[in-house]
Amino acid sequence: MAENLNEQIPTVIADRVDIVYRVNGTGAGRGSATAALNRILRRKQTEKASGVRKVHAVKQVSFVAYKGEAIGLIGTNGSGKSTLLKAVAGLLPVENGAIYTDGQPSLLGVNAALMGDLTGERNVYLGGLAMGMSREQIKERYQEIVDFSGINDKGDFITLPMRTYSSGMGARLRFSIAAAKDHDVLLIDEALATGDRSFQKRSEARIRELRKHAGTVFLVSHNNKSIRDTCDRVLWLERGELRMDGPTEDVLKEYEAFTGDKKPRAKPKPKVAQPA
Amino acid sequence: MSQVLDTPPPTTTAPPDDVDLAALAARHGLSVSGARPTLPEYVRQLWARRHFIAAFSTAKLTAQYSQAKLGQLWQVMNPLLNAAVYFLIFGVLLGTKQGVPDYVPFLVTGVFIWTFTQSSILAGTRAISGNLGLVRALHFPRAALPISFCLQQLQQLLFSMGALVVILLAFGVPVAASWLLAVPTLVLQFTFNAGVSLIMARVGAKTPDIAQLMPFVLRTWMYTSGVMWSIDHLLAKHTDWPSWVGPVLQANPPAVYIDLMRFALIDSFHGSQLPPHVWALATGWALLAGVGGFIYFWKAEETYGRG
Q: What is the pTM of this model?
């Protein structure tokens, strides 16, 4: 990875990054009123004694991502993948070290900005604006977003409140809104797992398209197949530490041996499971 | 996690400890992710998101009553019912209305203007702590949230003002050119509210417990702000009070904005009832809270949403 350092243009550099979460009111009896009072009165004591638990989510992770790369992030649940992604996006502060980026990396996801009580149509605008698109840009892409989501395939659903959508429909619209914007550095967190099979195919195609426009793509997924399909390099995180960093096949082979998943990953829906 | 996963294999690729990554970043002009922008840059970013701020506030407002059968009618019903309760207690039961001409318009104006400040500050306190999902998912200047919530309250107030005009006309208050003064008053009050909201948003983000305390603080503040009684009358009744009490009560920002709005809308509320230099006071509070609150909020920009 370091041999052609001078020729490639780095877009994201993580320099010995530590990320620590602090959680209030944990531990035995620490959530009680007396413990809380104790915590306020005796500020100077160690954080552990005061009932604040520290969770060291990412430990000493370093990597350099280059323009044109698609990088998969893998690891078992709770290994710090999503946390690292959020730190790259600048949404979580790092405890030690630093993350340097070219431009503003964006997380693919607008779920939090959308409101179930509003119609799909208004949510398209709201989500687009939240991602920093202009009204004109959204107007331009509006039909594309709706068509892509396939929301209107079964009738005029876009003018109904989003809370009336089925979970699959909602997920499809959310992905369509999020994927409507072009990004310099794109961070995707398990977005491919949404929707039915045909929508997943469309999503993967859209990700590849986004990758063409974006400088660098990061993809967090538990679906090894979609990592294989989209990424050419993989970072493997385990308990917050970077276990491996290398070409997709090499890392996935080790990872599958580690998780005991030697055969191609079984799909959630048995009927679409087919040997690769 | 299962037992098998507790023994991870040895690290095969060590991070390149020998490479100076900071220097590499500097050579290619990369910037630190999530760093706080400079103040002018922050203002520019915020301005670029003005459409989001407006859309978010309108969306919140609409979503508020979308499940109610009467729908958006509640935008007007809510403040009216509120005023009715205060009229019943203070106007009828406690008899505060003695000596106050046009008591109903006087009271309703006070309640509406106070509610604007109160709900702005309450919403501001929860602006960051109640929207962590949004803060952790998307990148935008965080000041957009408290400002957006204040804008939502302003829109809510405009509905109330519509109802207020009907009440004014029903109680025989004539339409006058002075009604136009309502506009600068609202602009100043909005700036003040936004500033206090920004301050409370930062405090509430660090200490969410504040949100539990605020309703009590605000209720105390309401009773000292002359919402349902006239500060003038009170001072005239209590001549034995120390001399500083009067000016302090009158310089209280919500009291200033409430009195200015009454002066603008109600013909029997004379300029003589306003504290001296009232416009300077109103502008001063707005600038102090607005500018101070904005800078105070910006100073902690990079810490919002921390785990």
A: 0.81
